[in-house]
Amino acid sequence: MTVTRAITTAPRGERGVLHPPRRPMTARRFARKYLIGIIAILVSIVVFLVPFIFILLQAAKDPKDAGLMGFDLPTTWQFWQNLVEVIQTNSYQVLAAFINSFILTIASVAIMVVFSAMCGYLLHRRRTKLNPLVNFLVLAGLIVPPAVVPTIWVLQGLGIFDTLPGMILVEATLGLSFSILLFRAFVATIPRELDEAAIIDGAGPMRLFFQVILPLLRPVLITVIVVQAVAVFNDFTGPLYFLPSSSNPTVQLTLYNFQSQAVSQYNLLFMNILLITIPPLIMYIFFNRQIVAGMTSGAVKG
Amino acid sequence: MKLSPMRRAAAATAAIAAVALALTGCSGFGSTGSNSGSKVTITFLTQNDAPTRTQSKALIEAFEKKYPDVTVKLDTQPPGTQGDNLMKTKLSTKTMDNVFHYNSGSLFQALNPKTSMVDLSGESWVKDLDKNFKQVVSVDGKVYGAPLGTSSAGGILYNKKIYQQLGLSIPTTWDEFIANSNKIKTADPNVTPILQSFGDTWTSQLLVLGDFANINKQDPNWATDYTENKNGAKYVNQPAFEGFQHTAQIVPAGLVNKDYASMTNAQAMDALANGTAAQYPMLTGSMATVQQNEPDKINDIGVFAIPSPDAQYTSLTLWEPNALYISSTTSGDKLKASKEFVAFANSPQGCEIQNKTGAAAGPYSTSACSLPSDAPAFTKDVQKYIDDDKASPALEFKSPIKGPNLETILIAVASGSTSAQVGAQQYDQDVKAQAQQLGIKGW
Amino acid sequence: MTTASVTIDPAAPTRAPRKTKSDRRGMRSPYPSWFYIPAGVLYLIFFALPTFSSFYFALTRWTLFSQTFIGFGNFVQFFQTPALTQGFVNTFIYGFVTSAAKVVLGLALALLLTGATFGRGYLRAVVFFPVLVSTVGVGLTFKALLDPFHGVVNQVLGFFHLPQPGWYTDPHLALLTVAGVDIWKGVGIATLIFMAGIVAIPSEYFEAARVDGAGSWNVFRNITLPLVRPAMATVIILSLIGGLRSFDLIWAMTNGGPGFSSDVIASVIYKQYQAGFFGLSTAGNVILFLVVTAIMLPVQWLLNRREADL
Predict the structure, then answer these.
(1) pLDDT in tens, A207-244
(2) B with C: how many residue pairs have Cβ under 8 Å apart?
(3) How far is CA C46 from CA A135, A151, A170, in A?
């Protein structure tokens, strides 16, 4: 499977080395190291930082100033006032949206991770006639665009359309394929001898999986959790289709609805963007190292 | 969390009720006895946008003060297509709130009022209703809805100061309008003659939707023919085609702001208020932006009807306010309380709340309410057209069919990537799809 | 229950002692097939069922409560949607442009970030950062930055007396602008996958090449490029699937406009859903399904074959 190759090849590499072997520093190498670095940093400031600084500045302006969309310091700084105002808008709808988005993200990622780890594990460990079929279905799940309106029809039939549980199950399902592929690749790096040892110790299938295998999957678990949590938290299309009423807004929907309010308030809009960027950012700061590690190797496993 | 002011109101009401019960010598605090003091709870469904919610909450609070034995629970739902679908779901599954706030006109008709709503023809406020409004909340002569909010108009908003300075008069034909615009352009190249704001795509529709009163004046049967797919009532044919022609004409004539493709409605309203632009085809509802950002300039703006090619047809297109309805599942005490609530909204006290919480965009559709004396000047312009019998409700109040792609098609027409002819053909196709989906006969 | 394949592995003898236990539970393997069931049930109900039923609903006029069978009417109508041809062309352009750019830029950035570059840690964080921001947020931010008149980008261009294009208001440019923003947002993921691929290359290869006196270009050409091919396949497939199906950034930035100039199949489908044309929208979904599959199968096959050659 191509999607997994990149990852399966990883553990075979030199662990944790992110730079070529050291060689004596010549003037040319020195210039190259710093010159390229400095150019890259300058370009990155323009390309990547300016948009974020822009969000920050806009979030601190007054409505009229923000409406001009200039890249300049606010004439009046009202960062705090905007923050309070965004939170109070529509009777604290943003807070409700944050709670909903957190519930949605945590529940769907939990389901997704456990179920797909089980699948990925089994796909690698047990070779049966089922395997080609399962592989095909996983691939189909990755490629085939979800049939939206029929999904609504199914959800309505189950009485969970426009409810948080319904949305959780849909998000969990749509993330399965990608997660299974990652897990299957990583299970390959766990020696079977470990399974055997556990089985000799009398571990049943459940214990074997949950107490032996799952802890060993930690690096890829973190990668899957972070990637999928960011994806679900930032998902806009899903809630747009499956949570249409205002009773369960998610942060992305409140943001989208914010821009369509008749009286435009760009300062609050950007404050809102800023607010909903914070949770994924915190997640990234915490797991920055592990994401790369999880992507690159099973080397971290103890 | 979002219901906390309501809860407080509910708690207060409960306290008053408890006192009332004690006074009437009722024995049990939680008694459900059928005495006159027993409490009734009704539910009220409205749209979830901020102004509507504020207004609803104020209305409920005042109502509960006046009728302490009734509690009103507020539910909200999104406006637009999503809301339309939810509304139908709730009505067809009999889970609708007792009182609900929804569009009048074609969307109201689509709810099958005869079976889903309570006939309110006998209520005392009906006699005060404006005849146009009465028509858009009635089926077979029975009235089902009471207005909440003001009507609004779709026409050309214009800066009066610029008109005064250049000595321009209100145009009554399209050619005069273009001539005025050219004069504005030559007088000061920095002033935009006509604003367009496709940053908010819906704004592209004004020259077509706002032209309906003119079509209606020429051919009063047009809306019926259009609905029944006969007599060539199509947008490719005149008179309806003129809206597409007008849309296509103004950009190549160099009369439009150069940032028309990205300007937003709010920016356009600001430009108009500040005098950097002279005219803007728009709904008067957008005046709320001016009220928020430049309240001192609100009286610099007036409105006139989108001119027809022929002066005798020029008239103003009106959008009726939404209305309150009672669902047919309501009965007994709840029905009584619901009727009281609807009547309260159209009582002097209810009107006062409407004036305080809603930005007026035009006259009320009932004589029970009147605009405050400090209402913005443009509302008087609207009233004048109505008094002169030169106004008509928009097409959506006369026909259930509106194609979903109109705004997109009109942007393509306005920016020149589609001709008026092709655009009108595309829209007729779009209308056909909608009519078929609705299962309307004749398509 | 097929245990045959399992017996070939060394674990087989060790299963004997606990056979009674697992027999009682009806499971003969330490790897019970029911592990597929939880995921399978979700997949079946929320993915397979809707997908299969869509083939039926695509043939109806549908309001969620009632459906009328109308045969291929929806497909006929779908192909009459204004400017649909453009929607198809746009879908291809968007998919291919974004994935090609992500491959090239992602590889370049990955090379830079796995090398001994000054400020590597900062660069790595900053390149990945856009991945974290929501698509809607990115769309709205760039709409403001690229505003043809007030936006920063055009003001800077104006300062240098360069032409100031209407980035998303010019019908000829809108789609490419959105694609550009998509690349900006997605290149971090591509970079990460490439980095994983590069790090996985055993360092002995590089050392041997250096000893042989190979220059940077030769190292890249003969070692790095062939050995990151699996990573490249991953990037191509993921970004192509994403690009062909996505519409959220397009929706947040242009709503498919101006006019129909940046519509893709997915946004046409959404518009039809929004209008309440459920059958028509589902027919569009079936068409999108066929298009994506028709493109992805050969791509998948091609990339797999190339890998096998290695």
Answers:
(1) 888 888 888 888 888 888 988 999 999 998 888 788 86
(2) 77
(3) 18, 6, 6
